[in-house]
Structures are given as structure tokens and as C-alpha cells.
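User: Hey, my collaborator sent me this sequence without any context and asked if I could get a structure. I don't really work with proteins. Can you help?
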Amino acid sequence: MTKAANEMSFEEALGELETIVNKLEQGEVSLDDAVKAYERGTELKQHCQKRLDDAKMRVDEIRAEKGAPEATGTEDFDESML
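Assistant: No problem. I've predicted the 3D structure and written it out in C-alpha cell form, which is a compact way to encode the shape of the chain:
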């Protein structure tokens, strides 16, 4: 049984997402399976983005408490980097 994305660590979700992307790129799946994989990949991508957003918010809060400027140079998760 597939684990719900919101129950996965960032690393678990990213690893599964990488596996899905690799299978889709290699064309090793039927059309129906590709659609299911795309749906799962979308769910995993959203989970990863939320985890990254939460981490950035925590870092910004810590920096604000210390009187440091807001972190710069952060970007949204880009699945094309997989």
C-alpha cells in the first residue's frame, strides 16, 4: 500500500518523486499508469513544496528573532531539477 504523502518525510517524498519521474521519462508505463503516476507525482510535489515553505518560514522566524535580515536567494521547489 502506498504511504500518504503527508505521512512521508521530505526525503521519502522526494525519492519517490524522482522514481516516478525516471519511469515516466523512460516510457516504461502504460497510459493509465502514467496518469496515475502523474497524479501521485503532483501530490508528492505539493507535499515537498509545503515542507520547504514551512522550513523557510521557520528559518525566517529564527533570523527575525536574532535580528538578522530575511533569508534571500530561496526559490520554490522546481521538479525540473530532478
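In plain terms: Helices lie at 10-26, 31-65. You can pass these C-alpha cells on to your collaborator as they are.
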